[in-house]
Amino acid sequence: MLESAPLACARGALPVAPALFLALPARSVPARAAMRGVMPDAAGRRLDDTGEHDRFFRIQRVEGPAGPLFLYSVMRGAALFHAEMAAETPERQAAFGAVGAGFAALLGWFRDVRTVPLDLHVAPAPEGFSGCAPMRRWIVGHQIFAVLTQGLVMALQDFEAAMAEGDAAVAAGGLALGADLLVASAVAFRFACDFPPELYRDVIRPRMMPPHMQEGFSGLLSADHRVLVQVLGRLQPLMAAAAAQCPMHHARLTLALQRVYDDHKFICARFGGASAPSLRGRTCSHLSGVEQLEGYRRARLRLLRPGNEDAVDDGVGPVE
User: Fold this and answer.
1) Is residue 111's pLDDT more than 60?
2) Using 50, 70 and 90 to split pLDDT, how confident is the model at 46?
3) Whole-angstrom Cα distance, residue 77 to residue 62?
């Protein structure tokens, strides 16, 4: 759940949220799609050993019924995004519109309403940069990314349970929602970083380094990301069957995952990661940030297309 914080928003934007909150839970989150409990990672560490990440990005994790809490986070994330967009130009609103569409897909999921699939292609980049406060945009962007990642975990768990039950339609729906949330997540990277590179270098990056943060601070410390990677690993044996039973949805999920890493590499390069290591790489790798991301991309695609990750061709080409 996202912490409440001072928020400048369009008039009437937030008062709508409680009404939607009351109207939407006609379908609560089914048990098969509920977030799993805290699990250890490969090194035996608990996934809740991520407090520094959550403190920096002002993310509060609470115990309670999964459905209402997750719905609250979706509404809070959507309100944050649209409040940020209210002050932006029409060109920027269009460029980042997939983030809002991702939230719409999540809300539709609660009501079994299918939304229009998100476009896998990159929207035209607006000129210049937003006039947003960089640290606020960086934090809000990561809060939004956390909600979208949790939604992706739930969509994949829905797919997993449906495959076990032999329900091809629900399985395809889980993949469709997963692809939409991946596209929204890719655009959320650009939304979170829509300010001049020198502001990242001079304002944001130093705040994520000692003495403010421990050495090696990274988005990879997110508990949501760790759960997502575990779920993808668990689903690997199902992907061959998914490719055979619902090939279009499986292919779109694969291409959407590639889009996430392409956009992440684009942002990393903009902020100097084409030649310099990431904050995490300063302690564990000689590779540049972009090279590290390329390694992650190949590993994740291998989970969706075992032994055939290099055959992916999205027809989109390089990202800018």
Assistant:
1) yes
2) very low
3) 16
Tell me which residue has tokens 């937030």: 14
Residue with tokens 């292919």: 251
In the chain, what are the domain boundaries? Answer: 51-311
287: how many CB neighbours lie within 10 A of its CB? 14
Res. 313: pLDDT tops 50: no
> CA 303, 307, 309, 312 torsion: positive or negative?
negative
Longest dimension (CA), the chain: 53
Could you tell me the CA-to-CA distances from 260 to 186, 204, 277 in Å, in that order? 4, 22, 19
Yes or no: say if 271 and 200 are a contact pair by the CB < 8 Å rule: yes
Q: How far apart are CA 118 and CA 116, in angstroms?
A: 6
How does the average pLDDT of the chain come out, rounded? 76
Within 8 A by CB and 6+ apart from 155, the residues are: 33, 109, 174, 175, 177, 178, 181
Residue 314 has pLDDT above 70, yes or no: no
CB-based burial label for 122 (10 Å; 0-12, 13-18, 19+) = buried
Contacts of 143 (CB under 8 A, 6+ apart): 2, 57, 58, 59, 77, 80
Distance of alpha carbon 280 from alpha carbon 17, whole angstroms:
37
Does the structure show a pLDDT above 70 at 66? Answer: yes
**Matching residue, tokens 């809490």:** 69
Q: How many CB atoms lie within 10 A of CB 38?
A: 12
The residues near 149 (Cβ < 8 Å, ≥ 6 apart) are 181, 185, 222, 224, 225, 228
Element (H, E) at 224: helix 223-245
3-state percent helix, strand, coil for the chain, nearest multiple of 5: 65, 0, 35
Answer whether 7's CB lies under 8 Å from 80's CB. Answer: yes
Distance CA 157, CA 174 (A): 8
